[in-house]
């Protein structure tokens, strides 16, 4: 038996298109690259935002004013109602426990507790920030908040 005798699924190994092999092949002469210009030459790459002679978008748009996107602080958001569902009474809720409960992905960003939902259990919650409503609900249930 020979490896070439084993039947293959039809179309599993498609032959590569051999370009630049004469006019009769259908992709000879310029080999599908057209005539002249950078695209016909080896080693040329088109720049990402090139628009072919048209003024590129990033040059058409005005650039003025201050942008705070580089300096803003981002938080993972957890609602008080989620704490009610996931944790038992008298639990000390930390960032690590929130990860294990699946409420937070990682601790790279801070954690902010928001006041959506109801809380009836006494919890001690550690976070970077609390909304006013969340802090009131946690303390009304007999719990404690700890700012990190």
Count up the helices: 4
- Any guess at the CATH architecture of the domain at 75-147? Ribosomal Protein L15, Chain: K, domain 2
- What is the CATH third-level topology name of the domain at 75-147? Ribosomal Protein L15, Chain: K, domain 2
Topology as a string of helices (H) and strands (E): HEHEHEEEHE
What strand line-up does the widest sheet have? 1-3-5
- Radius of gyration of CA atoms, rounded to a whole number: 31 Å
**N/C terminus separation:** 71 Å
Class from secondary-structure proportions: alpha/beta
- Give the overall average pLDDT: 90
| Percentage of residues assigned to helices | 10-25%
What is the CATH class of the domain at 75-147? Alpha Beta
Number of strands: 6
Strand content: 15-25%
Q: What spatial form do the alpha-carbon principal axes imply?
A: elongated
Largest sheet: 3 strands, parallel
Low-confidence stretches: none
What does this structure look like?
- There is one protein chain.
- The protein is α/β, with parallel strands linked by helices.
- The protein has a domain at 75-147: Ribosomal Protein L15, Chain: K, domain 2, CATH 3.100.10.10.
- Helix content is 18%, strand content 16%.
- The strands form two sheets. A three-stranded parallel sheet has the order 1-3-5. Strands 2-4-6 form a three-stranded parallel sheet.
- The longest helix is centred in the last third of the chain and has 9 residues, at 132-140.
């Amino acid at each position: 038996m020979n490896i070439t005798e084993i039947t293959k699924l039809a179309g599993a190994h498609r032959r590569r298109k051999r370009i630049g092999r004469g006019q009769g092949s259908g992709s000879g002469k310029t080999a599908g690259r057209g005539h002249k210009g950078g695209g016909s030459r080896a080693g040329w790459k088109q720049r990402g935002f090139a628009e072919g002679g048209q003024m590129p978008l990033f040059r058409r748009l005005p650039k003025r004013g201050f942008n705070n996107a580089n300096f803003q602080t981002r938080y993972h958001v957890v609602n008080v109602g989620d704490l009610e569902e996931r944790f038992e009474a008298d639990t000390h809720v930390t960032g690590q426990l929130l990860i294990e409960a699946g409420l937070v992905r990682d601790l790279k960003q801070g954690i902010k507790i928001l006041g959506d939902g109801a809380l009836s259990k006494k919890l001690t919650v550690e976070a970077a920030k609390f909304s006013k409503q969340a802090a009131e609900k946690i303390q009304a249930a007999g719990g404690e908040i700890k700012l990190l």
